[in-house]
Input
Amino acid sequence: MSADVPEVGDLVAGRYRVEERLGHGSTGVVYRATQVRLGREVALKVLHPRFVTDPQARARFEREARVASALDHPSAVSVYDFGEDGPRLYLTMELLEGRTLRERLSAASEVPVAEILDLGAQLADVLSAAHQLPLVHRDLKPANVFLVPADGERGAGVRVVDFGLAFIAGSAREDRMTAHGVVTGTPEYLSPEQTRGGEVGPPTDVYALGCMLYELVTGRVPFHGTDMEVLTKQMFAAPPALGEHRRTEPLPTAIDRLIVRMLDKRPAHRPEATELVMAFADLDRARDEGPRNDAHLLGRSARMVAQAEGPSASAVGEGVEVAVLGEVDGELWVALAANGIAAWVASIGDLPARALVYAPGAPTSEVARLCADGYTVLSDTDPGDAARIGDLVAAGAAEVVLRPVASEDLSRRLLRVARRLTRDLGT
Output
């Protein structure tokens, strides 16, 4: 047996006969194979020969087998065997029949709400099981989710694959196999903390699932552009509101709210996977009670149009209230009022407890002090001022907008943050 990758007809480890090459990735080749003694079809993954002598690549390959086999869940791909066959490293796992979620998304113009809830529930459940181990996948994306038909043993549903980037939450950074040259995720589904190279944990998977659900609802990922543009937006930009995307089938407001929470830039503010399991169960029960479209309730204040005399006056609006610390031009005041936002000029000394604060031009030290005192703060920065953006995020700012800010964009962000604030306060 040569050191090259196997060919059709080869026998690997004396028991796996290669039947067909299915595909390849950056580190290995995957085949359909038959486990000869059992007559069972399996997926056989073989590490590429050029990595066999690389200690890190070998460790990464072995870890994939250990991590995947540790997670015993109906929605996680089953790993059967792992070993060496001369110069080859291999693992065998469940052979999946079906298509990926990426293929499903490419084939449909709109995914029904019932299917979104079903997929979301299954993915939340497998993440909940993984996070209790505690395993973090950290490369969750549609290409790593298989949709499989019923097989008589494990029912129809999803299978999460490719745990090559997974790691044990809380493990030492040097054990996470993020060496130069190893892909650490896909930009469209990377969390802000991954993008910054920060601490990765269970909230990272929740954010990726939020991106996937956003795409299931809208047919588009939250952020588009070059890799660098997408990574920058993941860190600092708010995704377009789900309500901006037209759907034939109305979307329950609760799904909208849940996805917004999952896409929070702050890991600690995202729901845990166990909470998502319960949330999807509640959504499913609500659908059984009868369909309803309550999206108009969220849009009501946004349709309330009022007038303001100018920057020295309080804008008259209904619903969201925001204290402004700084200079805002007259056009923006009117726009805020037209979008149902009651704004007034404030000073630090007269802020009500836990207020929503817009502080354009505020020093980062002032933003940090306001956040530490329990206020929810939005501020702004000049385009390209990465240092200020990073400092504002580190200070705890809920949103950072780029100057000059369009009135509709600022209004939308204020409304979104206000909803989060109201929800967190339990009102």
